[in-house]
Amino acid sequence: MIRVLLVDDHRLVRAGLAALLSTADDIAVVGEAGEGAEAVELAGRTSPDVVLMDLSMPGIDGVGATRMLSAAQPEVRVVVLSSFSEDSRVRQAIGAGAIGYLLKDSAPETVLAAVRSAAEGHAPLDPRIAGALLPGSAAAAPTNQLSDRESQVLRLAAQGLANKQIGRTLGITERTVKVHLGNVFRRIGVADRTSAAMWARDNLPAEPG
Amino acid sequence: MTSDAQLHRPAVPPQPAGEQQVTQPDGELPGWVTFVAAGRSSQQLAGRPPSLRRVIAQMVVAAAVVALLVALVGSALSRRIAESQAVHEVAKTTDILAESVVQPSLTNPMAESTEAAAALDPLVRGRVLGGSVARVKLWSATGTILYSDEARLIGLNFGLDDGARAALASPQTRAEITDLSRPENAFERSQGKLLEVYRPVWTPDGHEMLFETYFRYGEVTDRSAQLWRGFAGITLSAVAVTFLLLIPIMWTLLRRARTAQTQRTQMIQRALDASQDERQRIAATLHDGIVQEIAAASFAVSAGAEAAAAQGDHELANRLRTAAATVRTSMGGLRSLVVDIYPPTLHTAGLPAAVRDMVANLSGRDTAIELAMDDSAAAQLNDQEQQAMFRIAQECLRNVIKHAHATEAVLTLSGDDNGVTLEVADNGVGFDVGAGRDQHLGLSLMREVAGEIGAQLDVRSQAGQGTTWRMQIPARTGT
Lengths: 209, 479
Known about the structure:
The complex is a heterodimer. Chain A is α/β, with parallel strands linked by helices. Helices cover 50% and strands 13% of the residues of chain A. By secondary structure, chain B is α+β, with helices and mostly antiparallel strands. Chain B has helices at 4-8, 52-105, 114-117, 121-128, 162-169, 218-310, 314-341, 344-349, 351-361, 375-378, 383-404, 441-453, and strands at residues 33-36, 133-140, 145-148, 174-177, 194-202, 208-216, 368-373, 408-416, 419-426, 456-461, 467-474.
């Protein structure tokens, strides 16, 4: 039996979810909480296997509650069930310790499957938001990882090309090159082109293809 | 002329991928076309009323100009009046001299002979010359000088000018400014400006002669100065008093204008804030209320479907499943609407994060979107400006995806001391910037958004050449 705690500030949503989960024989709802602090307290008493967590709530929100839960009870698996699909929210929630992220307009079988998969220790992610966590996506920033484009720009700068020439080579404007280089400098922690060129020689793999 | 197609349908077929540059160096593309000129934001467009100091300075300048005009006109006028008065006076003096001094002393031979006329000399020197009379001439009717206090003139014939002849023909006294260039006045040139007066006199037997006196012009100048002093005193003090009376009136008017202006600015600002608050509120209400209720309904209906299936009623189960799916679809639509109305991350995470989220969620993309954003640039902008820039970026990218048939687009956010610049460049089909740009709804939205915060919005495009939009928010000076 998978023990599930529901956290959502909307009573109707909790009721709908409880009804849905009760149709599965292997899942039992052990508690419902309307905000973050209550969720943490209830999880301490009921020791659920999986917490279905809403993000926007009054008081302590979903991200805060997730952080507190994963600190207090690391064995509890938090799956976010939100209506937000913005990448920054997704990264915040995952960063706080959630192992799964679903959107509220998911099909019922998807929700049930996600609860089961989380209980087994997998990470159920809605395919619509998974992109947020891929390193190559436009949204993966800010990390210390250089994007493909930034690597290209840095490689050309290291060859001694001026911004204008780099722009012409890559088909982008000088201004764009400048912003990319500024971001590159900040990410690799250098202040000028020379240092960046030296860093590129040591750290950047040779031009692919 | 209403459709997007008007602007975006390619005049040439879309280029195959990879053959075009997203942007090209300046000079190979058409120039920028300014869509919205940078300036004060529309909430400040009415401008502040001028300061009191400035108005008073302007009034002082105006008063000085008026005073100068008064001085010029007044001095010309008073000279004219003084001159005509002086002319009148010297004519009268001459009449008196002629009638009381000269005429009684004339003898018959004097009309013919300069020797006889010389007898007048002591009389002239004693009773006529001196004071303002500088010279005396006695002419014969034929234009010979019979007597003058200047001996070198005596006996010379210069003829009579028209004025003199007229004075003789119908006996009268005439006065005029002396023409010093005439030969008969050769000896008066050293005296400066003169007034001459002439009138006929008669010998006892009726011979007509012309008696002429010359007056120094200094008299006229003195009189003119006297008149001018009186005139100027009155006029200039009138100007000064008017000016002083105007100051409190101007001050009151200015204060009223300023109060009205302040109220107007506050009202516009309130309206703008209200519209932004409204968007935020609508988005929040939709998200926290309706979206959640729909989610709840979809779960409940799904649960009902499973329950029906468990009881063997598969027809009902299928109907409920269809209903649940419909509800989920409308929830998806509502979610993206909420983000459109007010991107939830814009306020909490800032412009670059909101743009990244938006780009990640753009649907139906065949266009690779490259982002180059300087996060510190966005930090220069306030909430309202970030929102405006977000909406421009959103509109530009939507146009790229919907209409441009581009393979690549680059969004650049950069900043420097002059302000913050957003550029969205694509390698799509471009459009004719000149044609129909007022008709497109998206474009007028962009115009409105940029105008609201005083940003500059430029576009550079041509059929087949891609499109670049550029929005610049000038740095705030001071404060």
